[in-house]
Amino acid sequence: MADRAIKLLVIGESGVGKSSLIRRFVENKFDENHDVTIGMDFKSKVMNVDGIDYKVALWDTAGAERFRSLTPSFYRKALGAILVYDITNRDTLVKLEAWLAELDSYSDNPNIAIIVVGNKIDQDRVVDRQEGRNFARKHRALFIETSARCDQFVSDVFKEIVEKIVSSEYFDNGQMNPNGMEIGSNDSDLDGNASTCYC
Amino acid sequence: MAEEIDDNEFYRENFSADSDWEVFNAQLGEILQKWNVNMPDAVRCFKQGELYRCKWRVERELLDTLKNGIEVEFHQAILDDVAKGEHEEQEGNCMQRTHLHEDLMSMANTFGPPLRRTSSDLHTLARIYGLRRFILMHPVNAKSNFMKSTSEFNFFLSAAAVVAAEVGSVVPIFVQIYDPNWNFYTGVAMAPALRTNFRLIGLDQAPTECRYLMGLLTLFKEKIPNNYSSSSAQPAKVSVCTTYALDTMRIRLPMYVPFDHGLSSEDIFVEGVDSIHLDLQQFYALPHGYTPESCTEMFVVYTWPELSEHVAFDSEQRSDFIPSKAPLGKIYLSVEASSYLSCCLKDYKSVANITRSLVSYVGRNFSGISSGAETTNPLDQLTEHQLGSKRIGGRSNYELPTQSTLTKRLPGPMTESELSELLAYLFPDMHPEMALFPYNKQSFKDKFDPMRIKSAVPDSLVCRLSCLLTTCHAHLGSLEGMAQLWAAFTRQLRLLWDNSLAIPGISGGFPDTRTCLLHQKLQMLNICVERRVQRESVSKRKQQEQKKANISEDDNDDDDDDCDDDDGEFFDCDDVNSGSSSPVKAVLSFKPEGRLRQLGLNERLLDEPEEFLYIPQTQEPVPKTEDQLQDDAEAMLKLGPGSGLTTEMMCTSLLSDMEAFKAANPRGIMEDFIRWYSPKDWEEIQDENGEIHHQLSVRMTTEGNTWQMVWQQAKPVPIARQKRLFDDTHEALKVLHYLETRKMNEIYELTIIPTLHTAILKLIDIFSIAHVEDLFSTQVEQLLGDLCRLSRSNSDTAHSVNYQNLLDDLSELERRFYQFKCFERLSGYPRRSSREQVKQQFKEILKNDNSCTILNKKLAAAGDVIGSGGSLYDILNPKLEQDMSERLISKDYVIRLDGDTKTNEKGINYLGPQFLRAIVTGEKLRLCGAFTESTTFV
Asked: Which UniProt keywords are listed (chain A) (predicted)?
């Protein structure tokens, strides 16, 4: 059981709903007023993919600038990263570039699986879906839009990335393969997701 | 037993009186059925030489017969599927024709390479008959004097024939006959109305006529069934190959061991063998060179792939099978070379199993401090004033205090001067008089290796040390030498730390978890040194200021703080005075302290519009090495998800920042803090009148918000008086202690990756100097890729990673390089051939199982110079012509005759294939026959 553990990072600007996504997924709760994450927090959940249970540890990071020096220390050994932005705030998507650079320089896994999540689709949209998709495509990531408040497509985020990770060569060997598969290079995948998240 | 029995009647059968043979048949039949040997053949032709390249699948079963274990093996070649189109051609063929017949008649795999690769799992039988599938029975225990007599193997052979017919097996079944000198087999294969008998014999002294084609043809003709000679006028097809041995090539690449000044006994000049030296661009503390036994054996093989029996003449008196008449010629290079580099690395691997402690080699107290002193109060040592002043004053020249412990000789095989030479290599700045290899400062600023091997910057202290340890282990005093060096290394580190000197040859900055743990530890030590120097210089300056201030009675602390550098100067609370019980002294006055700069240009406090909002000086983040991070993460996992304790762990830095903020902004409120710290939570609100207000976000103001609670706790304390989040002294001593207490296998784990990394870099260097990088680039890349993978997979698994495959690949690559060197000389480079030509042909050797075409009359006729061997033939042929008969080591004849596969009016008349292989080596002769007879009228 222990070797079927998957560490996922959830990163993004402050207030985009990282903790809410995790909370919705793990506890199926939504709380407008929950605590502002300090440093790091983590929750875990057992997920079943193709009949196999995986213990998924979700590492929630604080979005506030000041914690940025603290959080990278927890990037080690992460197999996947969930990059969250807020579709009501274009700046949060723009800032994802910086988060990605941070991930790139601190992650010890060159083949880390990445999913880009546009959260808060229950609110008035400012960022066009296409912009999020373009960003995801540029970085060979998966892409999905969600609402943690209305519980729309939240579980898909975690399902998609965990499936991606367990299907990759890397996970099978328990080793990282520098020439392993390219993550998220499948464009039809992206289109599929995009169409499901219209609401 | 086989009587008809009415189902309704009482049914009984008695097998108790069955003979051994019957029982064996039943057992064998069951196995054959399990293996599906009767499955229809998807017959497809072999591709040229395919049999010698493909992998084999072998299934094994044990049978117990006649009180002896018999192993039954099923060998199958794993051939890749070819497009269907090729199959269809075969389908028009005779129904009787099985894959066995195809294999026996196939011209594609008549002659394999003359050299047996040890790695090849090609069975002799497959090699002789060109079979893709066969079953072999042999005694389990080779020494059990069994299967020697005719009756014994006839027992099995007859069983094989009966069972094969019963289950409809078309796979040949062989029985191995025990003989100490020869591989003897006898076998049988069934096909519809046909039976092929396999016989192998060997003669130590063959009659002369049987050693030439003419005699063999006569023999063949006698053996084949009568109806061949009468009905078919087809001539037999003959294939011949002759093998000549060339002089073994020895190139001497003498042993080189860095820092070993003793004349190595192995480096004695060998007469007639000129030695060449390997050139390198850089110095690597790893040995190189090849053992004197290294050599390349060379064979030239001439082949006549397909002749009609009437075309060629070959007898004792006169032969057509001489090199000058051959249509095809190939050279084979069999290399046996072991390199000192690979040997040294393989030796080092054994350290992985040695759990002896360092102390058991070098004795207690080798580091120069008594074990008690470290725990009581290391601060006493550090705050010693004499040292302190020297530290700051003597930075340019490394005049170090001579302590008796540091000069105390470390026990071990190396002498003082040998050891200091090694240390001069590791710490060139400390020994300027003997340092030959200063660190290249630039390389540490370069971008990190894109391959991202979890190692360290090439030629960094970590790489140098790792290589030296490996070399010491192999050449300079084995484990004792290794322990001595490691102890000397840690002692040197302690000396550097005690004198606040940075460790050279290490990348700057925080411990980088993408590098190896040893590198991170040293980075950590350097951070500690840096923080300590900073801290001490500040406190020193403060003392001076205090003195000044006392004289002038002028208090201008604020201004001083404001004009402090931006690089996060750190004020440490005075450890000695404050004591551990109350490290924090709240400032009750409203005098602001520890300001860094204003937030924005015109941000003012909410409650005090007169005052600017200041960003306080904050404590720098805490650096951690990956093992510490691992501990942290595990602690968090243990505490469980969402527990308050996790938050508490995280709150220390928030509390520190809040206290610093309160000190810098005595009249600030939580809202002010949030404006700086988490501006997202300072929300803009538009009320009904359209006026814009700001307020804290809902999540910040909810009941029980952790931020609010921490804010309540926080007292205004500038970082100068805060408890240090990062205790550099403590951390540094932890690192030193960690390194000093490693066991031998742990030292190995810390250093193996940088060693292997450097070894590959050294090879790359050797290749580039020899201008052969392009030849070996795929192999090198493969090695780097594998190392990258290995370097990451071991970080926290308890069992150590297995480097055996990587080491094997590495020594194979070194072997290949030696082979290249020999081939280069053979080709007469540079006088008789160009480098490009040599490389081109060597590529063929790499790809083609150590062989390279030197003659191909077909291609030569078409004008393809390189493909036809080119100049190599001209170089080799004169050498051969001189003493041709002496160099001839073996002749291989294969005679084949196939029945007519077309069905004529009379019905089935396929006669099956007839096959004879004769291998002549000197006077010895081995005959391998496969003759098919019709069973229709038997």
From this structure: GTP-binding, Nucleotide-binding, Protein transport, Transport
